[in-house]
Amino acid sequence: MVICYVRYFILSILTITLSACTVHPFQDSSQSPPIAPIIEPSIAQTTESVPEIQLEFPASTTTSDRAFEDGRPLAARVNNQPIFLDTYQKQVAHLEQALKTQNIDLTSEEGQTVLAQVRRQVLDSLIDQLVIERAASQRGLTVSNETLEAKTQESIEQGQGQTQFEEWLAFNNLTMEEFKETLRSQLIANQMFEHITGNVPDTADQVQLRHILVADEATARAIIEQLKTGEDFAALAQAHSLDESSRANGGSLGWFPQGLGLVPPEVEAIAFSIQPGEVSGPIKSALGFHIIQLENRETARPLGDMHQALKQQIFINWLKEQRSATTIERYVGP
Predict the structure, then answer these.
(1) Sheet holding 279-285, edge to edge
(2) What is the dihedral of CA 276, 279, 284, 290, to 10 degrees?
(3) Pick the CATH number of 204-302 from 3.10.50.40, 3.40.190.10, 3.40.50.2300, 1.20.140.10
């Protein structure tokens, strides 16, 4: 049953989309229908060139053995807004079923690791949903009932009609009201995304960079001495760099703007402060020690495929700021 319905099992479309992107450059169904968004938000449009964007969640949340509201157990509270345990459990159960259809043994060590990640992602997504909706409300961004009904009908038509839509709801243990609330959340998230990133230009100051990543400062300094004697940067990158994604290309990272998160912030800061032809380093980051060579720099260079990735990173940074100003209480663990 192939139906293009909402991604119910994780309410935050943002989290799903960003976690589906490709790997960071420095890091090495039977009956269940494939579920795709019924709308085409900008945050769902990614390309193979988009780097993976890892969401980091604050550790300053509180934990309790049990918490209730109106007699119902809670999974979390977000600025005193409840996330009920049964809502969380229902989404986790749906994802568990999806994992089983992919022949993932949830009783294995690997399966338990995947399941723990899924449970965390579900809760993080539910938290983000409330954070985004609160910010949207403060800005007067809403979804009318007329728009919601129109989008619901659009989904039903894309899913080959009312009968299959109802079958899909039944298979996924959903009510029409739950479906519509999920859809409303997606539409609000899309509005917030465009509100925050709509003015991001399609050109930016960009650098063209090569780098060599090594494990310790002594090795980095030895390579810098070789460069001073005229050794070729690309050849040394191929021989010594620990970054497998760029090593074969002589350490080339290509063109990128500030704020994309393609390189560690320490490296980015230096890259945008030196002149073409300069070599700098060692630069310490969480990954090791970097030596960089600035090949070129252009102002107002078209972003191309990176435009969407830059918008995503800007939104993630905004969401992190919102989250840091939010009181989050978690009552369940992975």
Answers:
(1) 252-257, 203-214, 288-302, 279-285
(2) 90
(3) 3.10.50.40
Q: Which two tokens stand for residue 24?
A: 């960071």
Q: 93-149, pLDDT tens digit by residue?
A: 888 888 888 888 888 999 899 989 999 999 999 999 999 999 999 999 999 999 999
Cβ–Cβ under 8 Å, residues 15 and 128: yes
What mean pLDDT value characterizes the chain?
Answer: 81
pTM metric for this prediction: 0.74
- Give the architecture-level CATH label for domain 13-199+310-330: Orthogonal Bundle (1.10)
DSSP 187: H
Give the type of residue at 208: Q
Q: What are phi and psi of 107, to 5 degrees?
A: -90, -15
With vertex at residue 206, the alpha carbon angle to CA 202 and CA 209, rounded to the nearest 5 degrees, is 140
Is there a common fold for 13-199+310-330 and 204-302?
no
